[in-house]
Amino acid sequence: MGLGLPDIDKTWQFYVNKTSPFSASAATNTSFIFLNMKIGLTTFTTNPWTVEYSCDGVVAGAAGDLVDRWGADLTDLTGVVIGANDSAIRSWIILKQEGLADNFQICLDLSSGNYKVDVIYSYSAGFTGGTTTARPTATDEIVLMNNVSTVDTGLTKEKNFHIMMSTDGEVTRIFMNDTSDGMGFFSFEMPKNPATGWTNQHVAITTFSNGTGDQLTYDVLAGSSRQVNEAGAWTALTNSVTGIQEKVPLYISTEGTISTYIGNHGGASNTAGMNLVSKKFELYPAGIFSSTPPFRGRHGTLYDMWYISKNLRNGTTIPATGKEFVVFGVIVVPWDGSSEPNVFE
Q1: Are 81 and 56 in contact, with CB atoms under 8 Å apart?
Q2: Residues 6+ apart with CB under 8 A from 318
Q3: CA–CA separation, 49 vs 95, rounded Å?
Q4: Are residues 94 and 59 in contact, defined by beta-carbon separation less than 8 angstroms?
């Protein structure tokens, strides 16, 4: 491919090539995905996510009891109950990652309509409360996904996903796709080279692949489709005028022209995004930018993530033999060096 390989800043851990089974039930598909995801996040060797408390649809725990009621058996989904609607009995779990902040927590709430979920995070306050029919809340919570489908409207499809986390706990990324869509993605990250004055430094990205087409595109991450159907990147910042914390939209920016991004130049040709002088598919840095006053400006870059041509196949490894990096959608991230990535095309 002719790529000059970049240096990697972080040391990475991998929980990859996990595939959900076929099921006629959208609820079963969703239960399996999120149970497997929880297992991956909490079983990394170094600085794993930890369970703060949870609900299995029968017993709702108390904040800080550290009890995992979802279980660790992928053949037993009884603890991962999907609510029929937002006020029905369902499961939820609170996970904590101190690598991001002393009390950074996420809530995975399996509510609403058999295959839809809520994903919420708290930077520092932490979640409290919660019952078998209502999720916990936090005073500083940011809702990333509200009643969002994670499977294709209940169709019986396998879902592949891959989790990678830096050993310092500062970056967690989850990639997902199924038999008809390109990659979807969500992550919780500390920025690289953050702008001076940015407090509570973090980035959260959500672009689920759920029957709506490829979600890891230039348009979704950096263009006009950003923040459509809750896809996009976000942070939480305090408004300097009002003193109130706000959910701030971000662009995952890259190099380009006024008309398009470098990786899109060339249209649908096989050489789209290629440097026609060097004959190389090159990697471009992934930046963090906000256009929203009073937060407008460059905020930093992302660790060990780069953009590339839109025309490379999902799962392409770089180099092909060493497998140091992998292409998902239009981005490149480190890979485990040995596995062949399971993706659907």
Answers
A1: yes
A2: 1, 3, 5, 324, 325, 326, 327, 332
A3: 6
A4: no
Apex CA 159: angle with CA 155 and CA 162, to 5°?
A: 160
Cβ(236)–Cβ(106) below 8 Å: no
Nearest of 158, 70, 151 to residue 108 by alpha carbon: 70
Q: Are strands 116-122 and 105-109 parallel, antiparallel or unpaired?
A: antiparallel
Structure tokens given for 291: 């256009």
Report which of 220, 142, 154, 157 is spatially closest to residue 184, judged by C-alpha positions.
220
Q: Which residues pair with 232 in a beta bridge?
A: 206
The half-sphere exposure of 65 on its side-chain side, counting CA atoms within 13 A, is 15
Three-class DSSP category at 13: strand
Assign residue 304 a region (left: φ > 0; alpha: ψ between -120 and 50; beta: otherwise).
left
Give residue for tokens 């995905």: 33
Give the side-chain half-sphere CA count within 13 A for 223.
Answer: 17
Per the CB < 8 A criterion, the answer to whether 134 and 154 are in contact is no
How many whole angstroms from its chain centre is CA 46?
A: 20
Q: What is the per-residue pLDDT for 5?
A: 84
Q: Quote the CA–CA distance of 130 and 90 in Å, as a whole number.
A: 11
Region for residue 17 given its phi and psi (left: phi exceeds 0; alpha: psi -120 to 50; beta: otherwise): left
**Residue closest to 312 by CA, chosen among 343, 338, 281, 277:** 281
Within the chain, what is the greatest distance between any pair of CA atoms?
Answer: 63
Q: What pTM value is reported for the model? A: 0.90
Residue 257 has a pLDDT of 54
Under 8 Å between Cβ of 194 and 203: no
**pLDDT number for residue 260:** 58
Closest alpha carbon to 165 in 157, 173, 156: 173
- pLDDT at residue 43, rounded to an integer: 96
Distances (CA, A) of 99 to 105, 178, 188, 334: 11, 30, 10, 19
Residue stretches of the chain with pLDDT short of 50: 1-2, 153-155, 227-229, 258
